[in-house]
């Protein structure tokens, strides 16, 4: 690759001279500010094109096809876990001198197609997909580093996931060790790999110990507390509940209180995620902690490795989870 | 205003004829698709301008350098209230055929400067600022419709705010009506206008009734539950608490429970915002509801009015709040 020295590149002055206008006018055209007569604008644009002039830092980065922007596609923003995840990713991205542009997919294919255009036109340097999108394959065509979080779109596309199977195992083991004999598993929609893996780990241990267990599927974004209450009423002798998110666990605790159960004496509850609230609200929630900050750091590390065209040590990384014992499970 | 009859308006054929090109070429220029030689483009644009040709709605917006993108600057994403606000704005924006691009300011001037460049170069159509930013004045230079939420950067820049003063009044009045004699006001940082206004309304009513009241400032994003506990211990005979966010209220309730108070018998608590959790967790929180969905709808309505270069009926709109009575205040 040949390095283009700045002293041979045309400057804004060259453009102004060729178009026979002032530097200020060229600047107005480039930055699209203030009024410029349409004919003058055309003269300036023509001069820019003919000279191959590349304006300022940002435009130069465009010339190099680098924008220093990482795109992030999320399914929802108002979900508590995603809020924390987005901030963790943003911290890591800005720490490396990049900016983050966030796109909310809302599971809407039409919207994603529009975003795709934006990503394409703006020369986004890399893309992080935190949710399975309908347009996954189209994103690959962008020909930029792509990383998925919590799902795998292709064996060659790098991904990061928590060790969800292990999380399910840890939760089941803790409940059973503490004497639970009949466990309810409130989980998110079973088309999500995270939900399936948490359930898989959970049922492995439950089956191993021959423990009675029942699952109920809820919406991750808007779990319905009435469904939770109804399902508990159907199994009044429940003594353990494992939820595949902390928010679902907070809802389950509210339903249990309303029905007159004591926590953890009558029913023990374990959540998943370890969002900030889980350690603050009373009773403090026992939960499986996801490494939210590591999601940010590892994401950026992978994107940087890919940008440097280096090989990744691991294409699909699984990050460790751990059990945080608080007040919704019995003490040993 | 004169109504222009469609039969006297120039058509795309007139433009093609005048520019001496095909209709397809004019269409490519208007829709900014496919390759058009720069000189041909200029001929077409000139013909369009001279004839006063008005292409269909979408094409017209493209020609005028419209991106159909609204930028949104937020201070934080992981705050529960902001998560809900962002989704409400996004709903309204996409409903009108626009896309939303979200920028997290993090109160970082350097970052904001970079975003400013992005906004500029990408021809963002309009901008919503949900937080006071260090670069407020620079955003004005973008020369696009700007709207602020929850603060005012200039008397001429449109804004939307909840009726925060009234919210504070409603909370104080309810606590006092229900017999509170010593009230603590846990609030956010007192440099935020929302916080100041809520406190103002609150103290107006408190002073009117000669009620003892104490304020304590907390961080909105990360209120420290230890500070809350300490301050309650300092005023053990407190019987009413007004918090300037629901999250602070959830923290206060946890601190009260830990200290052995019954809610609402010993201490009544009122929050602010009406986030989803406030109506679900036990005890259900009495709170001042902000019209989160209206923030989205009204924002987009204002931006659209500004894009059409029409005058706003009100430059600074104040949206109504209301008291939602739940289980943390006594029943009448």
TrEMBL record, chains A, B:
Q: Which UniProt keywords apply?
A: DNA-binding, Repressor, Transcription, Transcription regulation
Q: Which GO terms describe its molecular function?
A: DNA-binding transcription factor activity; transcription cis-regulatory region binding
Q: Which Gene3D superfamilies match?
A: 3.40.50.2300, lambda repressor-like DNA-binding domains
Q: Please state every residue range assigned to the domain named HTH lacI-type.
A: 10-64
User: In its keyword annotation, does this UniProt entry include Membrane?
Assistant: no
- Specify the superkingdom: Bacteria
- Note the PANTHER family from the entry: LACI-RELATED TRANSCRIPTIONAL REPRESSOR (PTHR30146), RIBOSE OPERON REPRESSOR (PTHR30146:SF95)
Can you say what this protein is called? LacI family transcriptional regulator
- The protein's organism comes out as Candidatus Xianfuyuplasma coldseepsis
């Amino acid at each position: 690759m040949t390095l283009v020295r700045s002293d041979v590149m045309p400057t804004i002055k060259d453009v102004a001279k060729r178009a026979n206008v002032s530097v200020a006018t060229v600047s107005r055209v480039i930055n699209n500010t203030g009024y410029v007569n349409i004919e003058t604008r055309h003269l300036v644009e023509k001069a820019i094109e003919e000279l191959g002039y590349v304006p300022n830092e940002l435009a130069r980065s465009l010339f190099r096809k680098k924008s220093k922007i990482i795109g992030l596609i999320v399914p929802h923003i108002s979900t508590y876990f995603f809020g924390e995840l987005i901030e963790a990713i943003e911290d890591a991205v800005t720490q490396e001198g990049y900016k983050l542009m966030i796109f909310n997919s809302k599971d809407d294919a039409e919207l994603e197609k529009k975003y795709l255009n934006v990503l394409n036109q703006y020369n986004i340097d890399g893309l992080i997909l935190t949710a399975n999108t309908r347009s996954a394959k189209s994103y690959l065509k962008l020909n930029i580093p792509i990383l998925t979080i919590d799902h795998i779109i292709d064996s060659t596309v790098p991904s990061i996931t928590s060790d969800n199977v292990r999380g399910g195992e840890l939760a089941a083991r803790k409940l059973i060790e503490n004497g639970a004999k009949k466990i309810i598993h409130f989980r998110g929609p079973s088309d999500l790999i995270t939900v399936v893996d948490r359930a898989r780990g959970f049922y492995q241990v439950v089956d191993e110990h021959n423990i009675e267990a029942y699952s109920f599927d809820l919406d991750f974004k808007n779990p319905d507390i009435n469904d939770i209450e109804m399902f508990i009423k159907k199994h009044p002798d429940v003594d353990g509940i494992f939820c595949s998110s902390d928010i679902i666990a907070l809802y389950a605790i509210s339903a249990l209180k309303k029905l007159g159960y004591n926590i953890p004496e009558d029913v023990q509850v374990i959540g998943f995620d370890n969002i900030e609230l889980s350690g603050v609200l009373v009773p403090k929630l026992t939960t499986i902690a996801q490494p939210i900050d590591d999601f940010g750091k590892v994401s950026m590390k992978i994107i940087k490795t890919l940008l440097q065209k280096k090989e990744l040590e691991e294409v699909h990384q699984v990050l460790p989870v751990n059990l945080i014992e608080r007040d919704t499970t019995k003490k040993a």
